[in-house]
Amino acid sequence: MPVFGTMKKFQDASNTNQDGFQRLDENKLKISDICQYVLDQFEPIKSRPSMNKLVRFHTTNKYLFLAFSPIHLNKMGNVVANHEKLPASAVVEDYSGCLIAALSKHPTRSKHANALRRMYGHFYKKLPKHSQETIERQIFEYQHGRNQLSDTLRNLTVHTMDLDSMYLARQSYFLLFSDKKAVWKML
Fold first, then answer.
1. Quick one: which of 47, 35, 71, 74 has its CA closest to 58?
2. Where are the domains of the chain?
3. Which of 3, 58, 114, 162 has the largest CB neighbor count within 10 A?
């Protein structure tokens, strides 16, 4: 049985897509699937607390958490920083509460656009002006409901790979919110 029990808290979100609207396209993961994946990845850390593993988990999921709850992402970052020098087991316990709270929030277009802009900020200076304008326009259009998240992610993924940005390439956000067919084509 998973550390966090059933996914009851997330079942209400299972019929909601990443934009906060009803019904997911069959090529996209449900929010409940994404939450379950994250919790499954966290379970070994919860059962055998390790600060190194917690830092890696947090770093890998940073933009995913930003799309769910920027407030909880900040709280989680402070917990991981462990300013009080608590034992790993106490830090992991505090983190798990923040994680559950973060995943209980619904991603919105605005939160996704914020995450996209933050990712884009890692490499925009390395792009030619026309590529910068294209990505900025795509993020703006996504935020205002004129295109799909997967379209913008596909473009960001291409630039991430071209610029060899391993930090961004390791982000779970790319995999979990992308169109499944597009991901398989890239692999």
1. 74
2. 10-103, 109-186
3. 58
